[in-house]
Amino acid sequence: MSEDNKDLLRFAGEYADRDVDLYDLLGVDALTPKDDIHRAWRKRSIKLHPDKAGANFDAAKWELFERARDILSEPSARAAYDHASKAKLLRKQEREAMDKERQKFADDLEARENAARRVRDEKLQNDRVMLEKERERLAEQQRMRDDEIKRQAEAAQDMEDLAEARRRLKEKKDEKARRKQARDVMKTTLGSTGKPTGPANGAVAVPGDYVADVDANKQYWELVCDKLRAVQAVRNLQREETTADVLEEAERGVQQARQRIHEAEMKYQHKMPMA
């Protein structure tokens, strides 16, 4: 059974117990079919609709009309309402027919039933209160656990931050040592004056327009210019706070430029006897 049907059955019993005449409310009787129930509801409730009533809209009365329509349109709910209404009417007739003694007995019985119902309701209420307290207790425990986890995570993060700070400090010191070592190596490579030692353009007098690199179509003077640019780039980096890796890469560029000049000179020297 769906939740909607359960609600309709519950409301059907409540309205029967409260002597709410749903048939009279919609202007129908117990033999009116479902389709006529809906027509009667539309006719009776049209003035109660929010669009019609406006500021005078009565939500409780509108809800009662809607429930009356739903209960009388749903067979099981309608049957439950009819049964409960008839049972209540029968009990009323029986009580009226009883003499005073039996009336007192019935009243006492009903009072006991009501008292038992109140006891059940109070027990349910107490159970709800206890359940809510238990939920609050568990929630507080969970909050305390979460706070402890958070505290431990923050402590671990502090340790990680401290270790990271130490690691960065060590890297900085190592980087300074590498830069100093690179500068020392470069001084050794370029000489104490910071200028290349030996002939300015290598060890062999090579004409500037000599094509030294056939693949790149570079002349000898272009290779010399490449070397000078590489040397100047190293000097610029030495004046800057740059990393050892960048400085080493620039130094490799100088060595490669020197190597290309050397290869060009060797190539030219081998061709000279044939010239």
Q: Explain this structure to me?
A:
- Its main location: cytoplasm.
- This is J domain-containing protein.
- It comes from Epichloe festucae (strain Fl1).
- Residues 21-85 form the J domain.
- It is found in: Cytoplasm; Nucleus.
- By secondary structure, the protein is an all-alpha fold.
- The protein is 77% helix and 2% strand.
- The protein is built from 9 helices and 2 strands; from the N terminus they run αααααααββαα.
- It has helices at 3-17, 22-26, 34-45, 50-53, 59-73, 75-97, 100-190, 220-239, 244-271, and strands at residues 211-213, 218-219.
- A two-stranded antiparallel ribbon has the order 1-2.
- A hairpin with a 4-residue loop joins strand 1 (211-213) and strand 2.
- It is elongated, with a radius of gyration of 51 Å.
- The protein starts with a helix and ends with a helix.
- The relative contact order is 0.05.
- Residues 192-201 have low confidence and may be disordered.
Number of strands: 2
Distance between the termini: 111 Å
Major β-sheet annotation: 2 strands, antiparallel
Structural class: mainly alpha
Order of helices and strands: HHHHHHHEEHH
Helix content: over 70%
Residues in β-strands, percent: under 5%
Specify the overall morphology.
elongated
Low-confidence stretches: 192-201
Number of helices: 9
Q: Nearest-angstrom radius of gyration?
A: 51 Å
Blueprint (SSEs and pairs):
Blueprint: H1 3-17, H2 22-26, H3 34-45, H4 50-53, H5 59-73, H6 75-97, H7 100-190, E1 211-213, E2 218-219, H8 220-239, H9 244-271
Antiparallel strand pairs: 1-2
